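Supplementary Methods. Inverse-folding protocol.

Structures were first reduced to a discrete structure-token string of length 113. This string, shown here, constituted the complete conditioning input.
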């Protein structure tokens, strides 16, 4: 999709630190991590937001989230983890290719919340 930065990551046009990848989904470290291990999970098809996901895309995407969360848990050993998704500029969305944030939590003052 034209100028979409996340499509460029999917296509390998720009680099990203990949956490997980299969035919439908890719997960990679956020370029500006709010906490250590902050990861983004995206579908490989360009969909702008939550409202645009159909059943097939949703299933292929969401079913992988626990596995990715477990990989983060093993790698970083956080005390907790937030799953977050912003839809629309007002809600804080800045990249208009659907994504979920997985934000490991380490305690008060860890940079988030
Ligand atoms: P949003 O604000 O749309 O919910 O989240 C977009 C996220 O994408 C931000 O946390 C931002 O740091 C991240 N991001 C923006 N551009 C890039 C990039 O080129 N590479 C990576 N890995 N993350 C990016
Ligand atoms: Zn895209």
């Amino acid at each position: 999709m034209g100028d979409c930065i996340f499509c460029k990551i999917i296509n390998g046009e720009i680099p990203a630190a990949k956490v997980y990848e299969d035919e439908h989904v890719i997960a990679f470290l956020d370029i500006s991590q709010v906490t250590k291990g902050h990861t983004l999970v995206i579908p490989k098809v360009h969909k702008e937001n939550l409202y645009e996901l159909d059943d097939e895309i949703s299933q292929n995407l969401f079913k992988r989230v626990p596995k990715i969360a477990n990989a983060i848990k093993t790698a970083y050993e956080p005390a907790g983890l937030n799953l977050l998704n912003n839809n629309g500029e007002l809600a804080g969305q800045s990249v208009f290719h659907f994504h979920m944030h997985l934000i490991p939590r380490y305690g008060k003052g860890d940079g988030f919340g």
